[in-house]
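batch_manifest entry 22 of 60
target: Amidohydrolase
source organism: Mycobacterium mantenii
requested by: lab member K.T.
priority: normal
notes from requester: please return tokens only, no post-processing; we will run our own comparison against the previous entry in this batch. if the run fails, retry once and flag.
--- input ---
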Amino acid sequence: MVFSADNHITLAEDIFYQRFPDKLKEDAPRIWYDDGAYHIGVKGQSFLWDTFSAVVMQYDDLPGAASTNIEARIEELRADGVDKELAFPNAILALFGYPDKEIRELAFRVYNEYVAELQERSGGHFYGVGLINWWDPQGARRTLAELKSLGLKTFLLPLNPGKDDDGNPIDYASTAMTAVFEEIEAAGLPLTHHIGETPPKIPSEFNPIVVSMMTNIDGFREVFSKYIFGGILDRHPGLQIGWFEGGIAWVPWALQDAEHLVASYRHMLNRPLEHDVRYYWDNHMSASFMLDPVGLQLIERIGVNKVFWSSDYPHNESTYG
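--- output ---
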């Protein structure tokens, strides 16, 4: 049995408008196609930058890529040798920054319900990645409980958690977020981080798609550092974290740098680490790869039991086909 730990599914149905209560339909995110381009947005304003929309449309000719044909998806993957999959959302990541947090949470709950229905219909072949409220503890508890009741096995946390109600950037490692991570830890579900949330910092005149793809992994190291140096894993030792679609070659590089920085700046730390850097990776983290010969050469440093293979179906850079 071959399991792909990181595939993707494009939400092709207008589920938020369809499933929101009547009084909120006007504010619901919409799904639509315009001149062959995929969009998600509100009141005709797309949340997607042009290159993102263009990438999504690259696999439009695969019937199973969209959420409307789970049966075709299962057959396409079976023909490629994959029996089971963990499926992350595609453009839904654009909702991470939705300004109305009540609408944002409702959209996440609707998506979880929808993807759980696909999971049920798949007969054990498709497992969807859910979304939760990460900005307040009560919302985290509420969405985690509902997600678990739907049968979803994991959820996606953004690399960029956005701003709090006062307009200040949310710091995952801050004491203000302790209660949220207590809820995550108590839920007992592994959490995931995934590349692809934000566009490059500087626009590109030429080949913007591949420039964007080259910078996709940038957010991993910052959040990785928060878990270790920010004390998240010391305060919440029950957490399990997966890093997806960034390959595995970055792991020994990050561990090497983290160990060197501890040795160099230990006297300046305002919060000492309770364990060696390596402990946090070995006991709390794992990562996925598709095609990573450099990472596989370093597998003894990474840990053979700390990696997942993935197809990344149906993306251009996937192993599919």
